Amino acid sequence: MQTYRIWKITLLMLAATVIASFCSINAAALDDAGENETAEITDAGTSLSHKSIDSGEIFTIISDFTGGDGDYDYSYGYICLQNGKEYSTSYIKNQKYSFKMPKTAANYNFYVKVKDQSGKQSMFREKGDVEQATGKELAIKASVDADKTYIGQSISVTANPSGGTAPYKFRYSYRNEKGEQFYIGDSFVYNQVQSIKLPEKAGKYTVFVSVKDNRGKTAWCSSTVNSYPLSVADSKVSKTTAAVKEKVVLTAVAKFSSGKTKFHYSFHEQGKQWTYEGGYTSSNKHEFSFAKSGVYYIRAAAKDERGTYTEKQFRLTVVELDVSASSVSKTLIKTGEKVRLSTSAKNINGQLKCHYSYHRQGKTWSFTGEYTTKKYMDFSFADNGIYYIRVGAKDGSGLYKEKQFCIYVYNAASRKTIRNTQLMSSAKWAGTVRTNVPSGSYVNVINTYGHWFMVKYKDNTGWLYNLALGNYKNYSTISASTIGSYCDDLIFSKGRSIKALFGCVSSSPYKATNDLGYENNIVYIIKYKRGACYQHTNYLDYLLKRAGYETKMVNDGKIKRSPSWIKHTWVIVKTSDGWRHIDATNVRETGCAYLKTDSYLSKYFYWDTSKYPKCV
Q1: In sequence order, what DSSP letters do the residues of 464-531 get, joined into one string?
Q2: Closest C-alpha among 77, 127, 126 to residue 99
Q3: Are 334 and 413 in contact (CB under 8 A)?
Q4: Which architecture characterizes domain 139-228 according to CATH?
Q5: How many CB atoms lie within 10 A of CB 335?
Q6: What's the CATH number for 236-319?
């Protein structure tokens, strides 16, 4: 029993020893585990040798870290805050590293990356600057990429600082015409180039750039930018006067366009509705041509991607082929002598070709050949007589015009010249016949002009032609039957222009006289060199018609004379610019109204506009 107790105690003591030993081992293991668990790596005073240095100098980072496991490896680097460029080393053992900084001033973020043997990492960051002190006062200039732009466009502003101490920071803003200022961002930035989007409104904007150097000094400058809506004001046409069927090119020039621009072309004849030439197109050129003469308006409209719309129109005068300035070298020639017909043409569309012909009075036309590009033709005739020579001209569009001339051909042996001769060709004309025409021969006036006339007489050799020089007519006894001859002479001497004929009539002063009837009114003003509106109107109308113009007489017109209206008459004539009013009477309201429009004359006169052509 005793032995059992001793053995039991021995076993208990042995178990306790084992348990104590086990606990001691585990405690030691726990202690070892606590010693192997390393602390985090922390910065213990890493520093920069300078916070600010001059460009090109040596810049050093001194590393000081604690914690971690074992030796450290270091990677040194920096990032330029102006351009984002980065420089870094691979991991090295050096606790200190020096950089030779660039010569360009800038702001930098310096850093050290550190890691221990177990791979734990940490980082140190610190700002530093590379300065350049110029010794000059800080200043700034700025440039914009466009001082004229379309509404809502983004412009690019470039800051150009000088003086002070680099590096620099910038702040951008703009001001509208109301004086409201708008800043780009909340603070100064490193950007030396900045994009600024202007408002969606045309106007004048002032763009400001402020600069701050590395020591806190500031300066600013400004530029002006004008913002415009889409414009086609610089569009142009190849010509403003064109021949019938001639091509006219309208070139649309778009400015201040937001994105792609499309164009729309249209036209209208004066007084008519607009006609559109297709839809919108990307082509900035369009050709127009018109088959008849008149006044037309052609238009270019433009629309950009923003939907902004604008247009410009041009007045185009379309004129017919004109050979009225063609001429002959002379109108009186002797037999066998040459006379040259020279063709002068304008308003030609394409190539001009001419066709020449002639005929003797009373005969049919004879042609000298086919159409030719030759601009002249020489004629000569073997026999006495009156001849007509003619040019017919045709341009590339097929339009045809002609002009003819009367040529008097005489035999040198029968030509006599008698100065200051009067010929009695009418019983009502005073004067005596003094010519070299043989007594008893038949005398006939075949043509008259203001300073010479021709007669023909017949003897046993046939018809002979005689030229007499001088003013032979006595118009003091003019009558209704002779006004045609008088007006022909006047048109020959004064010319066919509207202005010349208007001057002949308007030079006669106003004299109140009753309406004597159309022809007698003309006789009265020619004879007495004065007259009322009836005489002036009838005389001017007759002269213009005689010269080949189309006219209308306003017979129901009125002038406002307080307290009532009084009757007045005047002429409407068709010119190359359209119908125009022309009043040769010297009335106090207008003086002499020469080629006036409806809008002008309606200020002084009244007439029933529905009865007469519109003058616009």
Answers
A1: EEEEEES----GGG--TTTHHHHHHHHHHHH-S-HHHHHHHHHTSPB-------HHHHHHHHHHHS-B
A2: 77
A3: no
A4: Sandwich (2.60)
A5: 15
A6: 2.60.40.10
Can you give the pLDDT at residue 455?
53
pLDDT tens profile 111-145: 999 999 999 999 999 999 999 999 999 999 999 99
Give yes or no on whether 236-319 and 487-513+529-611 have one common fold.
no
Q: What are the domain boundaries of the chain?
A: 42-132, 139-228, 236-319, 327-410, 412-473, 487-513+529-611
At 39, the amino acid letter reads A
Q: Which secondary structure element, helix H or strand E, spans residue 223, and what is its range?
A: strand 218-228
Q: Which class is domain 487-513+529-611?
A: alpha beta
Closest to 252 (Cα-Cα) out of 294, 203, 288: 288
Q: Please state the pTM of the whole predicted model.
A: 0.47
Q: Are the beta carbons of 448 and 426 closer than 8 angstroms?
A: no
pLDDT of 420 above 60: no
Residue 411 confidence class, pLDDT cut points 50, 70, 90: low
State the CB neighbour count (10 A cutoff) for residue 610: 6
Q: What is the DSSP string of 371-427?
A: -BS-SEEEE--SS-EEEEEEEEEE-TT--EEEEEEEEEEE-GGG----TT-----ST
pLDDT digits (tens, 9 = 90+) for 66-88: 999 889 999 999 999 988 999 99
268 near 307, Cβ under 8 Å? Answer: no
Of residues 226, 234, 253, the one with CA closest to residue 151: 226
Beta-carbon contacts of 218 under 8 Å, excluding residues fewer than 6 positions away, are 138, 210, 211, 212
The pair of three-digit structure tokens given for residue 311, joined into one six-digit string: 């247009």
Report yes or no: 154 and 76 within 8 Å, Cβ to Cβ: no
| DSSP class per residue in 270-314 | TTS--EE-SS-BS-SEEEE--SS-EEEEEEEEEE-TT--EEEEEE
